Amino acid sequence: MQRENFTSRFGVLMAMAGSAIGLGNMWRFPYMVGEYGGAAFIIIYILCVFLLSLPILLCEFIIGRRSQKNAFGAFKKLAPGTAWKWAGLISLVAPLIIVSYYSVIGGWSIEYFFKACTFGFTDYVTHEELNTMFNDLVSSVWIPIFGHTFFLLITALIVMGGVKGGIERFGKIMMPILFVVVVLIAVRAMTLDGASEGIAYLFKPDFSKLNAEVCAAALGQSFFSLSLGCGTMLTYASYVNKSENIAKSSVSIAVSDLIFALIAGCAIMPAVFAFGLNPQEGPGLVFKTLPFIFSQMPLGSLVAILFFMALLIAALTSSISLFEVGVAYLVEEKGMNRKKSCMLIFMITWITGIFCSLSFGPLSDFKIIGNTIFDFFDKLSANFLMTIGSFIVVMFAGWKMKKSDVMDEFTNGGTIKGNVKSFNFIWFLIRWVAPLTIILIFLSNLFL
Ligand code: TRP
Fold first, then answer.
1. Is the CB of 40 within 6 Å of ligand 1?
2. Is 97 in the pocket of ligand 1 (CB under 6 A)?
3. Most C-beta atoms within 10 A of its C-beta, which of 8, 52, 53, 125?
4. Residue 297 C-alpha to ligand 1 middle, in angstroms?
5. Digits of tens for pLDDT over the chain (448 positions)?
6. Residue 3 resides in a domain
7. Domain limits for position 165
8. Ligand 1 centre from 374 Cα, in Å?
9. Residue with the nearest Cα to atom 11 of ligand 1?
10. 337 located within any domain
């Protein structure tokens, strides 16, 4: 059977940027900036993106496109008969874990989107009332499970449509809409009275706030935001045409992801400051603080609808990429058809997701190593699986694959002159800088 490919350069970019741009940019990045001291965090984050995450993304590109296989089969094909075939194991587990909790937040976004559409935020005047509304929502049983189910169902249906007809098409339509919407919201936020303080918070660095924990957090965030270490980019890369310049594509993806995170910051922080609220609200920032702002500001109801629509689109384009990793595996390695694979992945993540959802309510006392199920899944994936997965990918490209093969893939057989010139620098980053830094973060996550 002919393997499906992405059909256009724009489609590849939108699908991969869609995977990268997600809750990580609109929900996680702004609250991390808040928690870790604003602009100083952003500067470290930018360094992490270009010196570390970008080379790892390139490795995923190289392995995926060279092998033309799913994230598990890729290692088997490129290093046949060796223990490397187990290297793909993480990509079988991690995406399932991430989807499980990701779709719970996706479900909340659906709830909030409907609330915004029915002008639900104007009734709640005080900040406390909105806090209570959020806490009541997440700790209840049925509504969040319903949201989670609905979110997962949309994800499964898109992936069922195939690489070209589902994933690529959805990304090509939705990503530009997402971009326009978020820019509109940022413009609205930055023209509020008192917005300048928020902008200063984002862009004026205070280096006294820097420490090892901030650096580790910035690194973890850059991995999460670029969807690294879980086979998502590797799987998508396997659908990329052989004539594509992968260095250029990776840079475009990393840059758009970064710009998007910054715009999301500009959509949120100025408004937080304009209304004298606390930027260090943590994970509740988007769901507790923002609705309050929307209820207070001129044109707020409209902005609320747009914002939660954007959050939902961003979450969907990412969750389809996580879903596709498992589906590609089942189709290519287990010979299942696409529809059945989607249903199987749906069932697994639906059940594990229900436990994640309940861990805010009836199961909140059930702890795994001191964490609720949701937090455990989040930490397990972000602090461990993604770091180990990234380590495996760079070690494979840097130490197992032949240098000439890596170079061949990176330069399209020597035809892209710019890539030939920069290869030695990239090779150094892949072989030395990336693995050593990953070991450092890993240790700091264990001990900090
Ligand atoms: N990058 C996405 C975000 O920022 C989330 C995501 C998609 C992801 N695929 C991933 C995270 C794979 C880790 C690994 O929201």
1. no
2. no
3. 53
4. 32
5. 568 999 998 999 999 999 999 999 998 898 888 888 889 999 999 999 999 999 999 999 999 999 999 999 999 999 999 999 899 999 999 999 999 999 999 999 999 999 999 988 876 668 888 889 999 999 999 999 999 999 999 999 999 999 999 999 999 999 999 999 999 999 999 999 999 999 998 888 888 888 888 888 898 899 999 999 999 999 999 999 999 999 999 999 999 999 999 999 999 999 999 988 888 887 778 898 889 888 888 888 999 999 999 999 999 999 999 999 999 999 999 999 999 999 999 999 999 999 999 999 999 999 999 999 999 998 898 878 999 999 999 999 999 999 999 999 999 999 999 999 999 999 999 999 999 998 987 887 777 6
6. no
7. 9-447
8. 16
9. 227
10. yes
Question: Of all atoms in ligand 1, which is nearest to the CA of residue 231?
Answer: 12
Whether the CB of 387 sits within 6 Å of ligand 1: no
Which contacts of 337-346 are long-range, i.e. CB under 8 A and separated by 24 or more positions? Answer: 338/159, 338/160, 338/162, 339/160, 342/156, 342/159, 342/160, 343/156, 345/96, 345/99, 345/156, 346/152, 346/153, 346/156
Ligand 1 atom, smallest distance to 318 CA:
7
Ligand 1 nearest-atom number relative to CA 19: 7
Q: Is the CB of 224 under 6 A from ligand 1?
A: yes
Q: What is the DSSP letter of 372?
A: -
Please name the residues in contact with 100: beta carbons below 8 A apart, sequence gap of 6 or more: 349, 352, 353, 355, 356, 377
Residue 118 domain-assigned? Answer: yes
Distance CA 148, CA 110 (A): 9
Quick one: CA torsion of 414, 420, 425, 430, rounded to 10 degrees? -20
Q: Number of folded domains in the chain? A: 1
CATH number at residue 283: 1.20.1740.10
Does residue 87 fall inside a structural domain?
yes
